[in-house]
């Protein structure tokens, strides 16, 4: 019964995320590598944006997602290799992958800088880090005030999610060779996560 309720919940979340971010994710992943790493893959929400036959090296600390990941991978025709640990220390060789993808995950990692430099470590020369993240609103705006008010309960309720991280600036300061970044506001009722950034960082 609990498993069915969980699957129903993830299905609802999946529809919402696809409606709000699907077109943007599809564009970000256009021409993606044949093999890529996805950090914080969760239940496999992003497999639908990949070409059939793609190999996804999944970095997902929660092993409870493994069954859903395999089922969704089979449905979308992608191959998965699952690693159940956080992205701060990946058991992958230096300069071994062409692309790393992260979506709505850097808000909840313990150390953003450590994760981003770990991403750089595993990327080949000219490899790409593709990202989509919600971020801290501009100072003194009403959204920034809301973020400040709700940050503690939000973090507790949404499994460690921080609503006021300057993720875009952290990526820009990580010494990638080139960073293309776009700021946008999500059309969402969840006010604390309206401001977003997305883009590509090239090693």
UniProtKB/TrEMBL annotation:
EC number(s) on file: 2.1.1.-
MF terms (GO), sorted A to Z: methyltransferase activity
Residue ranges of every copy of the Methyltransferase type domain listed in the record: 37-131
Keyword Kinase found: no
Record SUPFAM superfamilies: S-adenosyl-L-methionine-dependent methyltransferases (SSF53335)
InterPro entries, A to Z: Methyltransf_11, SAM-dependent_MTases_sf, Thiol_S-MT
Superkingdom to which the source organism belongs: Bacteria
CDD domains assigned: AdoMet_MTases (cd02440)
GO annotation, biological process: methylation
Record key words, sorted: Methyltransferase, Transferase
One Pfam family, short name: Methyltransf_11
Name of the protein in its database record: Class I SAM-dependent methyltransferase
